[in-house]
Amino acid sequence: MMKPISFLAFAAALIALAGCLNEDNRIPENCYDGIQNNGEELVDCGGPICEPCDPCENGQYDVLLGEQWVDCGGACEPCDPSFNGVLDPGETGIDCGGETGVACGELCGDGLLNGLEEGVDCGGPDCEVCPSCVDGIMNGDEIGIDCGGPDCDACATDGDCTNGLLDGDELYIDCGGSTCPDCEAILTWKANGTTILADFEATATLDGATGTITIAGLSVTTQGMGLVLPEPPLVGWTDGAAMTLDDTTAPAGEATYVAVGGNQYSTSFGGTINVTITYVDAQVGGIIVGTFSGSVVDAAEDNVTISLGSFQLPIQ
């Protein structure tokens, strides 16, 4: 009769077995471990060492296989009738609506021509308007509004509204002029570290008599920023011009910040705001672009730090 194994002997056997499993003898990552590793495209397939993945299981719409939908139709298994790229009975759009339980608008980003679309993911009642050369919008492969690219007529100038350069007859980089979208009015800054965007109203106004440009903007939280910028003496309005606004330049040159609640801080009370003009076309219909930072003070001598200020404003 076999003697029963004692508890101590059993525990010793477990410890011995555990000692056999170490970093030197573990089974390495492989193409049969049920884990996506080794640079595999999918679990246990594709990549540099595993067998290629089945193209009918790659989660992609492969036109060369004749697929009617992702991983079905053509050389793959037949598609579910609800998702076969065909307008079937009971559907209000291709593979959507009616008895499918899929809203046609859900298909506007799948890269397929389906739903009620007029083009791939565009047109119809649910998706964005398809790009065209007569829609008054710079879209598709255009390099200007309704011009340039492989489909539309050449633009009126040699500018390219997509290249990040100031060229052609652009008012500023990739905006304005005869073919680019209008330049956006931007005025933003930080007050004691809080970012503020003058998204309610932002303007730049030129005083033709004095050459002064006044920048003003108001946020939806009623915080406001105003910069009165006198034309720099001698050099005039030129790219790279720098100026200092403080209590010695007021009121000809002044910076004002209005906090929530209406309390007003200004360089007239103290502090200094430094302004650098990055680009300027100092005329009505022109544009002024620059940065500013410093501090402003209120009547009680409390201080607000203004940092990371920037503006890009067409001039009125």
Report on this structure:
The protein is mostly beta strands and 316 residues long. Among the domains are: 131-182, no CATH class; 186-314, no CATH class. Helix content is 4%, strand content 23%. The protein has 1 helix and 11 strands, in the order αβββββββββββ. The longest helix has 14 residues, at 7-20. It starts with 6 loop residues before the first helix and ends with a strand.
| Number of H- or I-type helical stretches | 1
Which spans of ≥5 residues are poorly predicted at pLDDT below 50?
A: none
SS content category: mainly beta
Instruction: Name the overall outline.
Output: elongated
SSE diagram, text form:
Layout: H1 7-20, E1 186-191, E2 194-197, E3 201-206, E4 213-218, E5 224-229, E6 242-245, E7 254-258, E8 264-266, E9 273-281, E10 287-297, E11 303-314
Antiparallel strand pairs: 1-2, 1-11, 3-4, 4-5, 5-7, 6-9, 7-8, 9-10, 10-11
TL;DR?
By secondary structure, this protein is mainly beta. The protein has one helix at residues 7-20; strands at residues 186-191, 194-197, 201-206, 213-218, 224-229, 242-245, 254-258, 264-266, 273-281, 287-297, 303-314. The protein has one helix and eleven strands.
